[in-house]
Amino acid sequence: MIDDKYLKILAAIYYLSRQNPTMRQVHSNQVEALLGVSYQDLEPTLRYLVGRDLLTATWGRTFAALVALTAEGTDYVENPLDALHTVEKSLTQTNTINVGGNLNVIDSKIVQMNAGAISESDANITRDSFDTIVGQLPPDVAASQDIQKNRDSLNAKLQAGDRLGAAGIISGLAKVVITVAKDAAVLIQTIPIIHHVIQRLFNLP
Predict the structure, then answer these.
(1) What is the distance between the alpha carbons of residues 166 and 155, in angstroms, rounded to a whole number?
(2) Which of left, alpha, beta for 58 (phi over 0: left; psi -120 to 50: alpha)?
(3) Which fold, 4-71?
(4) pTM, 2 dp
(5) What are the tens digits of pLDDT across the range 32-41?
(6) Burial of residue 29 (number of CB atoms within 10 Å: 0-12, 13-18, 19+)
(7) How many CA atoms lie within 13 A of 104 on its CB side?
(8) Residue ranges in the chain modelled with pLDDT below 70
(9) Where are the domains of the chain?
(10) How far apart are CA 142 and CA 133, in angstroms?
(11) Which of 64, 79, 82, 106 is the most exposed place for a label (fewest CB within 10 A)?
(12) How far apart are alpha carbons 18 and 169 in whole angstroms?
């Protein structure tokens, strides 16, 4: 799984790039200002994200870079479940962990944990996270019929032990946030929450 600080940078770059769609890259100074960090703190994380193929960067002679999300980096913001499915190679339609090759102790434990019902603790955290994200949306969107239907469907999938279905509903909130949230802080705060819930639903380390 990817740390929050990296997810926030991806979300920030995504937000800034949408503000000016004609620009192919975003200046790192804008990212610094949006996140309230220095270039000295930002630069190592940018290089890490480039190494993970989530970001491209053109480094300048001064303390600055032009950065852009790759297709995979964009998926981390727009389609968290699909992104995690690709990277983790572990989420399957049968709601178990598909481990290729030899099983080790960690892999075996994950398989066993995902074979059972969703714990009440994990279900409650998932519901609370859904409500937290929805609480940051405009009131008319938060009270919409679609959101209420999704909340009811989430309950049903949690009770049925449908990890993939529940994760899909949580992941789908990313598109809602992207569409309606005007404040960058909302996107930057909610993307890590979404990733954390999916991680917890599948007991990923």
Answers:
(1) 8
(2) beta
(3) Arc Repressor Mutant, subunit A (1.10.10)
(4) 0.85
(5) 999 999 988 9
(6) middle
(7) 1
(8) 1, 63, 87-115
(9) 4-71, 79-201
(10) 9
(11) 106
(12) 24
